[in-house]
Structure formats: structure tokens, C-alpha cells
Amino acid sequence: MAYSYEPHYFEDMEVGKTFESAGRTVTESDFVFHSMFADDWTELHTNAEYSEDGPFGERIGHGPMTFILTTGMVQRCGFVERTVIAFLGMNYMDVPNPLTIGDTISAEFEVTEKKEFGSREDAGLVVIDADTRNQDDEILLQGDMKFMWRKRDYYTEDEREEMGLP
Q1: Distance between CA atoms of residues 141 and 106, nearest Å
Q2: Architecture per CATH, 10-163
Q3: Which Pfam families is this protein grouped with (predicted)?
Q4: At 43, phi and psi to the nearest 5?
Q5: Whose CA is closest to 104, among 67, 68, 133?
Q6: E strands present in the chain
Q7: Which residues lie below 8 Å from residue 55, measured CB to CB, with a gap of 6+?
Q8: What is the pLDDT of residues 92-119, one digit of tens each?
Q9: What is the mean pLDDT of residues 70-94?
Q10: Cβ(66)–Cβ(106) under 8 Å?
Q11: Sign of the CA dihedral 117, 120, 123, 129?
Q12: What is d(CA 84, CA 95) in angstroms, rounded to the nearest whole number?
């Protein structure tokens, strides 16, 4: 695993390169903030009494919440800082197990594809597989993330400095 918290340019990303996030414990506040932001107050996520008798025996996080937390862990790793131009989507995302209050989660990321764009000289495509797990090593999310990644060699050192790039 690469524990680098430094930005990486397109040139630095190689297929097979891996990163590991720091852990994070999911709180009641996370559930409330996500419900407020998404305006999704489904009882399975917000009603303890209702959820206790439901299929999971407790409240569970929204599926998209697990994805959002995973994207935050990408950011915390630092390798995308100021070098990713855009998130371009996903080819797949699976959420096989529920996220619960009190789970401590972390993620591993692996570069699985890297290619030049035919339409841009300043950036390329990098695809990163994500694997988010809880403290019991249960998979909470698996998916890939497609990014438009800035090329270091396209800019001079002076241009990078002027743009505030590493």
C-alpha cells in the first residue's frame, strides 16, 4: 500500500498502484446530515423503533451515503489533491452490506486503468477501484471511479506554481 498523502499527477498513476485510507467511525450525526442533505428521511435510516423490527435490526445508512463516505476517503488520502480535474462517473458500484452507526470504515483504492484522452493534451483518464470495509472486514462498497487527471508534463513549473499546483 502507498501511504502517500501527496498529490499525484497522471504520470504518477500506474496500473496496480494502491492507496489505503485512514479509518473513520460513522456517527449518528453522519446519518442525520446525510438525510438532511439528500432530503431522504426514509424510516429505515431515521426511525430507531421502526428499524429495530426491520430486516437489519437497526437503522442502516443510505446506499449513496456509503459511496459519499468512500469519495471522502479518496480525498483524505491526498493523492487527488489539486491534480484531479473531474470525477467522470462509475462503471459499477455494489453495496452488498449495510453501513450502521458505530461502524469504523476504511477503504483501499487500486489504479486499474490509465489512458490518454484523444481530445485533451493536459489530462488523461485514470480508473480507480474502491473497496470499503467495516471493522469486521465486511465489504460495504465495491466500485470503480473514473477521474480526469491533470498531467504534470503539460505545464511548466512556473505555470504550475501560478495555478497553485504541487
Answers
A1: 11
A2: Roll (3.10)
A3: MaoC_dehydratas
A4: -60, -30
A5: 133
A6: 18-20, 24-25, 84-89, 93-94, 104-116, 123-133, 139-150
A7: none
A8: 999 999 999 999 999 999 999 999 999 9
A9: 94
A10: no
A11: negative
A12: 25
